[in-house]
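PROTOCOL LOG
Step 1. Enter all chains and additional molecules of the complex.
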Amino acid sequence: MDSITIKDIARALDLSTSTVSRALRDSYEISPETKRLVLDYAKQFNYRPNQIARSLKENRSRIIGVIVPQIANNFFSEVINGIEAAAYLRGYYVFIFQSHESYERELVTLRQAIDRKADGLLISLSSSTSDVSLLQSLQEKKLPIVLFDRVSAELDVPCVTSDNFGGAFAATEHLIETGRRRIAHITIPSYISITQERLAGYRAALERYGLGYDENLVRYTDFGQTDVGPVINDLLTQAPDAFLAASDRLAISCLAALKKRNIAIPETVSLVGFTNTPVADLLDPALSAVEQPALEIGRMAAQQLIDLIEMKADTLRVGRISIPTRLVVRASSRLT
Amino acid sequence: MDSITIKDIARALDLSTSTVSRALRDSYEISPETKRLVLDYAKQFNYRPNQIARSLKENRSRIIGVIVPQIANNFFSEVINGIEAAAYLRGYYVFIFQSHESYERELVTLRQAIDRKADGLLISLSSSTSDVSLLQSLQEKKLPIVLFDRVSAELDVPCVTSDNFGGAFAATEHLIETGRRRIAHITIPSYISITQERLAGYRAALERYGLGYDENLVRYTDFGQTDVGPVINDLLTQAPDAFLAASDRLAISCLAALKKRNIAIPETVSLVGFTNTPVADLLDPALSAVEQPALEIGRMAAQQLIDLIEMKADTLRVGRISIPTRLVVRASSRLT
DNA sequence: TTGTATGCGTTATCAC
DNA sequence: GTGATAACGCATACAA
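Step 2. Run joint prediction.
Step 3. Record the structure below.
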């Protein structure tokens, strides 16, 4: 796979490499004739600049490193689409890495991104990440970083997330307004940001409507956990009249558990999930959803990052950007 | 984001860059003391080799370019996981690109991969790709390429696919054996390889059992098409007693259409889809599936490609590797 | 308007 | 064992 280089063009046209280089970049100091000559030759022999050499020379790669826990997850793949779209518009390419929810993989992956000289990093933290000191040191070294979705308060970088609090609040409020009183919350690992924000929204809504917060109605699960059936069964012993599930997988598992027990939705128990699965509404027409603005999160995060990269304004402190979720009520859950 | 370089180490330790380079690569010609000195310093100041410089020098990037139509598709994201796993084991990294089912995007993306000096390419063709001449010329230039899933007969490169013929045959056979006679086939664009292979399997099974092939029972759809409802309705006018759907989306749409019309599955109509959606079985316990070995396809394809890259044996002609699918019958579709 | 020289970080080929 | 030097492909400061 050897391609033609500037040197080849220079030799063929009996010019110097610098002239060719300038002609190719359409520099004003090159005569029109020479430009034409070079450009024609380049096109004819399909010259393509070696981006590796360019990166080395210019000390920038025009690559954004994206680290997500999993690609095989509709939310993240949509976020990536958003990132890609925004990056494409501004001449950047996206290098995708997966941490597989493992802190070690996240580190390996982070180092790769740095070794490959990514111009900036877009990160959604793995669920097993508690130590962000490497990220902190990177940030101190002025590597542009933007966190999205799963963020960390210990890092002083721009963050783009769904309005998790608002989404959980709205969902809970909806359940309360339609007559529910014992709203269970089944959620993901307790130490990641989105869990806490959603829990806070859930709790705030309960308190707002004078319903006490009952920790017996809240259960945490692991991402790795394959079977959440037992946890749901355990919750069911608390006789809830509604579920707020913090992920696609949990919502769907709830659905399965309720069906298995012939518990009617929404007649007996209401179900709202934080779900972005495209077929969710087909699963059961009564599965309501807090839909996350995945594309928008990706777009915003990429824009933030590229702004950071290009301005190099380390003063630019945008802080947290929170994008509204959308509550899609698929069937009235009003108690009759 | 400036990291320490070999030069920095050399200066600090009053050595030459070549000595440092050799010490870092643990060359036998460097004295143990010097090695220790260099290695200690490197570790202390967290030296990391610049992969861009390395790539330029060695004319290889240890990067595999992967081009898929869409990431937000369970099949492809699983394939990517398989690729990543295999690549990781052999010291390669994966650069993921999406063609978004567009030929133009595929070209842009292809050029990016080349410009970034990917050591080899793993490609699943976009559905709008009919012209493979660029790929042909790349292949002639000895760029290692392996196709997977959506392949092309015009390209003389190794291919890794599901056994689409076998999968469709087995599914159709199952339907026939359980008493179905009018088996409709709703499928994806006609000109991509998997469509033709699946159609051939479907047809072969019909003929094997003495059922004629009726083209009125076959319908093609586009990937871009948002609403396939009309096509399904059209098929329903042919009074089929079974559906073989060629994708997740089509299977799910069939399901929705049947439910809407209160057509019982499998009592009235049987449904088998080429589906890998994790929640498919929850959608309807009667939705049977031809499951594709996504992980395995990814692994095999990556291994093939890395073999190609490393042996540089352009004689190595493995041809087509076809990995069995799995027919998962979720409810007996026997006619009573 | 064009050419010469230098450097990005690394490795390889020579010397010594 | 170690060091000087060149080279990968490109871009630019400086000459001419």
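Step 4. Note key features.
Residues 15-19, 22, 29-31, 34, 53, 55-59 of chain B lie near DNA strand D (CB under 10 Å from a C1').
Chain B has a mean pLDDT of 92.
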